[in-house]
Design brief:
The chain has one domain: Rossmann fold. 42% of the residues lie in helices and 19% in strands. It has twelve helices and nine strands. The strands form two sheets. The chain has a seven-stranded mixed β-sheet with strand order 3-2-1-4-5-9-8, sandwiched between helices. Strand 2, helix 5 and strand 3 form a beta-alpha-beta unit. The structure holds S-adenosylmethionine. The site of S-adenosylmethionine has 24 residues, from helix 1, helix 4 and helix 6.
Length: 270
């Protein structure tokens, strides 16, 4: 049983049961999924690994990681999501919190934090989650975390001006969030409580958790904001050029913050 409090507002958002379809529904979600697969398959250590998927929700990433031959354990605070993940072949799923992982030191080859860091609005809690991931990872293993970039709300507002999209962030909200990163909507159709970070902040939080000099990668990159992204994703040749180009620019420091999501990867010191 965890001693950390999980925000009721975040829990009720994920209790709606929509997370399982997030990465298959929209073109940007589909690009995120394809890029996360491409990045993790290249950046995780080789071989068959013990992988911990922290904040794994219904297991969208755990599923393909298990199919790839890894031994996957998922942890998430939302019991209804964990129940879905527990049905996946090759995946062990438990309810719990990133800030207090119920495993001993050096249990996993890779610990993924793909969700918790942007839902923990208190910096000390984010550093605690990264430190827990580091503790549970074996020396030589990796900790990989996804964050939502600070610019993303404002980019969505820019996009909404030229695109017919259902959920529109207001100009006022998007500008305020661009300044302070604090995302709190009264309307859960927009999203739930989150903190949007600049890449440099994540880099510093990793360092404060004992993981120096992590590598950082743009997940969707700025192409994730291109109107009519669907055409690029659906047409095989265009998709190949998109994915190839993203590999070329993924670690370019000047472009990291212009992506919807960012992946930060550190090796655990031996
Ligand atoms: C947007 S979903 C991401 C799901 C999946 N990992 C992915 O990348 O698509 C964010 C997840 O983080 C989980 N989460 C939020 N706060 C957390 C915490 N303190 N510890 C662990 N997981 C948390 C939520 O329950 C939710 O399932």
């Amino acid at each position: 049983m965890t001693t950390w409090e999980f925000e009721a507002e975040i829990e009720s958002y994920y209790e709606r049961g929509e997370e399982g379809a997030r990465l298959t529904r929209s073109p940007r979600g589909r690009l995120e999924f394809a890029r996360m697969q491409d990045l993790l398959r290249r950046k995780l250590p080789g071989g068959s690994l013990d992988v911990l998927d922290v904040g794994g929700a219904t297991g969208i990433h755990s599923q393909w990681l298990a199919e790839d031959g890894h031994r996957v354990t998922l942890i998430d605070p939302v019991a209804s999501q964990v129940a879905v993940a527990a049905e996946l072949p090759g995946v062990t799923a438990v309810v719990g919190d990133a800030r207090e992982l119920p495993w001993g030191d050096a249990t996993f080859d890779a610990v993924l934090l793909m969700g918790p860091l942007y839902h923990l609005t208190d910096r000390a809690h984010r550093v605690q989650a990264i430190a827990e991931a580091k503790r549970c990872a074996r020396p030589g293993g990796v900790v990989a975390a996804v964050t939502i970039n600070r610019t993303s709300g404002w980019c969505d507002w820019l996009l909404s001006q030229s695109n017919d999209i259902d959920r529109k962030i207001s100009a006022e909200d998007s500008l305020r969030i661009l300044g302070d990163g604090e995302l709190r909507f009264s309307d859960q159709d927009m999203f739930t409580t989150a903190y949007l970070a600049h890449p440099g902040e994540v880099f510093e939080e990793f360092a404060d958790a004992g993981l120096k000099a992590p590598a950082q990668y743009a997940v969707q990159g700025f192409p994730g904001y291109i109107p009519e992204l669907e055409r690029l994703i659906d047409e095989p040749e265009a998709r190949r050029h998109l994915m190839d180009g993203l590999r070329v620019i993924e670690a370019e420091p000047s472009l990291l913050g212009a992506s919807n999501h960012l992946l930060t990867v550190a090796q655990v010191p031996s």
